[in-house]
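Let's practice the habit of predicting before peeking. Look at the sequence and jot down your guess about where helices and strands might fall. Then scroll down.
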Amino acid sequence: MAAAQGRLSDGAGGMDDAKGTEEEARHKGSHHGSGGSGGSGGSTAPPAFAAAVEALRAARLRPQIEVEATRAPQRLAPHAYALEAAVVDGDEDLADGRLVLLHDPAGHDAWHGTFRLVTLVRAELEPEMAADPLLPDVCWSWLTGALQARGLTYGEPSGTVTRASSHYFGGLSARPSASQIEIRASWTPREGLGGVPDTAAHLASWCDLLAQVAGLPPAAPGDASVVTLPQRRGPQSR
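Done guessing? Here is the structure:
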């Protein structure tokens, strides 16, 4: 699986202020994210966090998406659990991403809640698509649309959409130009019974976003106005 290795953060502004987030974490104390692969939902974790993590682990997702636990960031909240995923076609990854569940039982002023979801999603694009001036707005609407399509309530959404192009010269000039889209975002899921958000539904929505960025058709019939990316010229080999 291609791991999304971009740096995650969740400052008051969302994903784009890693330095400020680390300063805030130091000021809040020396707490660390729960240890182990993907964080922890074990007996040392608060019941609400343990239940939210168990729901993530039990979620059933479309077969083209491979999901596995990964090491969670240790400075963003007292408790954290992380997943990484890839949209797979044979031996090729069409898109990949990382989703982190954060929990602070004391609450967080910037989150307006005790839970926060933080994500990084990225995929290769045709250069012509990357040049579309409306692409960032469309990609952000895919995130919010994926949440709304499953009837999820959330607050304080924040994030960035970045596109980058690589052009090769000299000994690398035979390589075709490559373009990439990257979505970094965070939002506060509504807490339900027992203070536990519906993390399984949020994970499913996030996987819908991954599939859409990868150019896969919707898993079920949807709005005809939904736009998906065309298949990329050269998906990266795993």
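How did you do? The radius of gyration is 18 Å.
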